[in-house]
Amino acid sequence: xxxxxxxxxxxxxxxxSGLGAVSVKYLASQGHRVYGTSRRAEFxxxxxxxxxxxxxxxxxxxxxxxxxxxxxxxxxxxxLDVLVNNAGIGxxxxxxxxxxxxxxxxxxTNFFGVHRVCHSVLPAMREQGSGLIVNIGSxxxxxxxxFQGFYCASxxxxxxxxxxxxxxxxxxxVQVTLIDPGDFKTSLTANRVFAAASQNASVYADRQNAAIxxxxxDEQSGADPRDLAVLLExxxxxxxxxxxxxxxxxxxxxxxxxxxxSRRRCSRNSSCLTTGSNGIx
Length: 281
Fold this sequence. Notes:
Blueprint: E1 9-12, H1 18-29, E2 33-38, E3 54-57, H2 63-77, E4 82-85, E5 91-92, H3 100-128, E6 131-136, H4 149-169, E7 174-180, H5 188-191, E8 193-194, H6 205-220, H7 225-238, E9 243-246, H8 260-267, E10 272-276, E11 279-280
Parallel strand pairs: 1-2, 1-4, 2-3, 4-6, 5-8, 6-7, 7-9, 9-10
Antiparallel strand pairs: 10-11
Helix pairs in contact: 1-7, 2-3, 3-4
């Protein structure tokens, strides 16, 4: 089956919960052909009678799984217009309490997972001469949050990867955008993984727990995930922006340009999009 001219063919990783799940449903409701991914999903047996949106299996830590999902979409649709790299995990714990293995697990999903999926979709996007890749970062990729050092490191690294990729693939008609959201009320709060050594026996335990409780309060009173789905559609309409920073962000206090780090990020991009609860500014 080949895609019709109505709507875009969209792949959203990490589409079973949180920002991903809401974006899958919203963009499909706007007439796009949306494929979300989940490690627990299965490929359907009858691809000709599928309803959209469709959840398909993908583990961003396994290249074979990614290639199978991308091949399924290309065979069914004939093209892939938009990739949203949303899959990620949240790791908490002091640097000292975090083992090398735990740190690697954070980077395998949040950083190398993005690279693996980009590596899989780019040949098709280059061949068709068009495409949009949207990487979902975090305000933690602009400011560093204590006891989330490896999470922040993965998101800082994603900024560099996105900026380099944007310059490399632009001549092929492929656009690349980074969104750095702040606080959203999602399942990330409940699913946060803690370093094994970070519990009560840790010398950091009291300060860590206080910091995480404050963060969780901000997250649970954060923005509606649907707002980010609307932003994704606006970015698609514009065929990409350089860097989108969500205005309602960490601790409700940071604003675009309010720190040296974020000012540097914005000044290096030709179009820095700031957004808030009222939409694109």
